[in-house]
Amino acid sequence: MTDFFKGIAPVRFEGADSTTDLAFRHYNPDEVVMGKRMQDHLRFAVAYWHSFAWPGTDPFGGPTFERPWFGETMDLARLKADVAFELFDILQAPFFCFHDADIRPEGADFAENTRNLEAIVDYIGEKMQQSRTRLLWGTANLFSHRRYMAGAATNPDPDVFAFAAATVKTCMDATLKLGGENYVLWGGREGYETLLNTDLSREADQMARFLSMVIDYKHKIGFKGAILIEPKPQEPSKHQYDYDVATVYGFLRRYGLENEVKVNIEQGHAILAGHSFEHEIATAASLGIFGSIDMNRNDYQSGWDTDQFPNNVPEVALAYYEILKAGGFTTGGTNFDAKIRRQSIEPEDLILSHVGAMDICARGLKAAAAMLEDGTLERQRADRYAGWSAPAAQEMLQGGTLDAIAQRVLSEGINPKPRSGRQEALENLVNRFV
């Protein structure tokens, strides 16, 4: 045991009327919602990077967090793991997620990186044997180091491509060894800043080849989890190739990979792409590529990916509504890709942020389940499209021609009148539940 969270007991469910700061008011892991335990619906995961690796910097200021594990040694990496698992236990978190660079010191070269990663993975594996917390997914950090300034898979230098591919191989090995349920590819710098030095076709082909090798290696090592791509627009590259769910799907279809890869959707990225979170989830479900989510929010006034913990029940409820409607998570879950504010410097702040977010998600899940069980929203949606059940409407979809349709419109005197979309009524309906 470390003394970082000294004196802080595991967080318990106390109910909506609790006045205890470190208590769950809405997240009751064992509460049954739509026939499943709440914990099994939500599948919460703690993000190793924001919780334990981020030092509290911003574009205009240096670190504000003083953590005893900050530094590039194996002893400090082990201390970081000790503290991480103490937080997991305090929160009773079922999962965590990591990048390789979050858990191991940066070495002088690939060989040292690999030795460091393998050693700390063994140490984390020992921690997991005494913990209820499992690995939701692993990934490689292919964006922070200066070698990746022009991308990883899309880099013009084949040596960078090779270094990135080798790194992903070691991270997939680590994810498999720790029993991870997914592997994520986050192309943080897979994009371009100017077309003056960019070959778009070449970079797309490189990215597809890289992804194909990942898929091949997944099958070679017997990894049964999902391969996930995380869409992200605009930042840090001006033009990201994985802009949103639809863009990712188009890329996958172009290279015949749509049956091998799903998406990990982040709320903050959805907003930056000009979408709502529920839109991106519904799009992924419709295309058959929904996998997992990163739950956070942006400051809507900043126009930047601020990675804040969720606090908006209506937004979260609509997201979980689409997830439940799609059948819920399989290998995926709710990862808090969120960080406390740089002025929140106390250890307790790290716990409070997760407690509040878990409660918000629980409230959203229960509201979403209540809406689905009520059925009014789905009945009104179905009623809006009811006309398409008529034989003539089906014929138009299944082989009608413009000539035949024009003749029917003339012969039947079809002259349709607009029908209300009833948006305000439906918004009022949602508000009854949230």
TrEMBL record:
The active site is at 99, 102. Its cofactor is Mg(2+). Its main location: cytoplasm. Binds 2 magnesium ions per subunit. One of its GO terms (molecular function) is xylose isomerase activity. Its EC number is 5.3.1.5. It catalyses: alpha-D-xylose = alpha-D-xylulofuranose. PROSITE patterns: XYLOSE_ISOMERASE. Mg(2+) 2 binds at residues 266, 269, 305, 307. Mg(2+) 1 binds at residues 230, 266, 294, 337. It is an enzyme of class 5 (isomerase). It is found in: Cytoplasm. InterPro entries: Xyl_isomerase-like_sf (IPR036237), Xylose_isom_bac (IPR013452), Xylose_isomerase (IPR001998). It comes from the Bacteria. Keywords: Carbohydrate metabolism, Cytoplasm, Isomerase, Magnesium, Metal-binding, Xylose metabolism. The keyword Transmembrane helix does not apply. Belongs to the xylose isomerase family. Homotetramer. NCBIfam families: PRK05474.1, xylose_isom_A. This is Xylose isomerase. The lineage of its organism: Bacteria, Pseudomonadati, Pseudomonadota, Alphaproteobacteria, Rhodobacterales.
